[in-house]
Amino acid sequence: MPYTSGDTLGGGLRVDLGDIPLGGVDSAGVAWHLQEMDGWDSPASEGETQAREGDHGSWFTPVYLRERPITAAGTIVAPDRASLDDAMDRLRVAVSLTDTLLVVQESTPKQAMVRRSGKLLIKHVTDSVATYSLMVTAADPRRYSTDLQEASTPLPSSTGGATPPLTPPVLVDAVTVAGQIDAYNAGTFDSRPILVIDGPVIAPQVLAQMPDGSVRIIGYSQTLNVGEQLVIDTDAHSVILNGAVSRRRFLTTPTGWPIIPAGGTVSFQFRSDTYDPDAMLTARWRSAWM
Question: 283: exposed, middle or buried (C-beta count within 10 Å: 0-12, 13-18, 19+)?
Answer without folding.
Answer: buried
